[in-house]
Amino acid sequence: MTTTGTTPQASGSRAGGYARGRRKREQILQAAISLFGEAGFHGTSLRDIAAAAGISHPGLLHHFPTKAAVLEALLEHRDEVDEADLEAELDQGTDFFAAMIHLVERNALRPAIVDLYTSVAAEATSPDHPAHAYFEQRYAATVARMLEELETRRDAGGLRPGLDLEASARSIVAIMDGMQLQWLLARDLPRAQRPDMAGALRAYLDLVLVPEDARAAD
C-alpha cells in the first residue's frame, strides 16, 4: 500500500532549511541595523548589507528583494519586540507610564536600535522616503495611545489640574525621541555623563501625573 505525505527525512530536511533561512535573515537584519544607523537608509546599499552580513548580493536578494523590504522588516521587528515587552508588563499589572519608563531604560541597552530609529526617522520626513508613511502612522498611533492613557488617568483623578491633554501626549513622545537624539550625540562620553533618557521622561511625568498615594489621601 502506498501512502502520501512528507517522509520524516524530508520533513527534517525542510525544517533544517527553514531554520537556516531564519538565521540568514536575522544575520542580514543585524548587519542592516548597524549600517542604517551609521550611514542612514540612503547612504547604505544592498551590496553594503550583503558584505556586512557575509553573504553574496544574490543571496541577500533571495531574502529581501529591495532595500525598502529590509527597512520594513527592521521597523516591524522593532515594533513587535517593544509591543510584546510593553503588553507583558501591562498584563502583570504594571502602570502604563511606568512601563513606558522601563521601555526607555531597555532602549539604553540597545544603542544600535536607537541609532537606526533616530537616523531613519530624520530621513523619513521626506515624503518620498520609503518609511515616510510608516513614521507618519506610527506617530499618529503613539500620540493617540498616550492621549487615551492620559484621559483614563484624568478620569481616575490621577492628573494635575488644567492640563492640555493632547499637548501633554505630544510632549511625552517628543521627550522620548528627543532624548534619544541627545543620548546618541553623547555616545563618546562615559556612561555616567550621558543624558538620562528614562530620568528625563520620569521628571516630566512627575509634573503631569498625581502619585497614587496622593490620590488615596484625597
Automatic annotation (TrEMBL):
UniProt cross-references to PROSITE patterns, sorted A to Z: HTH_TETR_2 (PS50977)
Domain HTH tetR-type intervals: 22-82
UniProt DNA-binding residue ranges: 45-64
Keywords: DNA-binding, Repressor, Transcription, Transcription regulation
Taxonomy, superkingdom: Bacteria
Annotated region (Disordered), positions in chain: 1-22
Protein name: TetR/AcrR family transcriptional regulator
Organism whose genome encodes this protein: Isoptericola haloaureus
